[in-house]
Amino acid sequence: MYPPLCNISAVKFWTAYGAPDMPTAYPIPTPTHFDPPDSELMQRLQSIPALQLGEPLHFLCRDLKQRRHAANVICHAREVLPPRHSVFSFGNELSVVSPELSFLEMGAVYPVERLSQYGTMLCGKYGIKTATQDASSVKSTRFDTDLFKRTPVTSRELVESYLASCHSLHGRTIARRAFPYVFDRSRSPMETATVLLLSMPYHYGGRNLPQPQLNIPVAIKQPMQVRNWNGSISALDAFECDLVWHSKRGIVVVEYQGELGHSGESNIHRDARKHNALENSGSKVRALTKEALLDYELFTGFANDLAKLLRCYRKSKLSDIDKRQKALHRLLLGKYLTMRVF
């Protein structure tokens, strides 16, 4: 069997997995032997858009003897065999390491903050298509046009179970440090950045707030009549909310309002009805706009207001806390900061 894609190549595959032009992957027992990558394999991989980025492909090899050095190939030897079902096949003898092993592998590459972001994407309900637009025209690109909805490729529970079964694999130490800041059910990179910026500890540059749940239903006292896509009417007794805290003072909700799905008269009316229904049911609701998220000073004001609402008065003793928080903001939102139109 050919060696599976791994490392950054696996990251690109799982980031774009679920797009119409991506192959379907399914788990197989982890092989005990991999053939070295050859020209036939490289030619087959050219049909996968997510991998056509003009960069070397990364492959997992069984031992040092199978490593092959070439301009477009990087082999990673892992003499300790990963747990069963650590490899996914996507036909024609092509394969990729599992999302869980990919998360662990990147513990040897990414810092904790970046790895938490990657893990939350794997456990989230969105994928990111391969960028094809020329960098010179990036300012005209809408922020979310490269996103698509998908079923999560893994979950916190599966990642936790996988890490518990790996006792000597390289990357496990950082992966275990990042795991507490991996969240299920995120619907976009902006939601992922928001929850990490708010909840990661001070020493990572976060705001050290309690961890919320993402995209869960919040009940309303008075059911609302809503029109369905087919024109029928039904009663709605709960709203799915982006970030939800169950505090001693009640439920606190943060709704991220990006461009897509929150502009236009009908969407603005829908958001207002949702906000009012939640507030009338006792929940405290705060809206976070894209502008406020991308602007560090505006986001700081939003985070401070949210901390007061949650009665979270933890103060940092770090002398460089502002520097750390700015660094995390740039790390998680760097792509979108460079795309801003001034």
The share of residues in extended strands comes to: 15-25%
- Share of helix, binned: 25-40%
Q: Element order, helices and strands?
A: HEHEEEEHHEEHHHEEEHEHHH
Which strand order do you get reading across the main beta sheet? Answer: 8-9-10-11
Give the structural class.
alpha+beta
- Number of β-strand runs: 11
* Low-pLDDT runs: 132-144
Task: Report, as a whole number of angstroms, the end-to-end distance.
Answer: 51 Å
Rg from Cα: 22 Å
How are the secondary structure elements laid out?
Blueprint: H1 7-16, E1 26-28, H2 39-45, E2 57-61, E3 73-77, E4 87-89, E5 95-97, H3 99-105, H4 112-122, E6 126-128, E7 147-149, H5 156-165, H6 172-178, H7 189-199, E8 213-227, E9 233-247, E10 250-257, H8 265-280, E11 284-289, H9 290-294, H10 296-309, H11 321-338
Parallel strand pairs: 2-3, 10-11
Antiparallel strand pairs: 1-4, 4-5, 6-7, 8-9, 9-10
Helix pairs in contact: 1-3, 3-5, 4-6, 4-7, 7-11
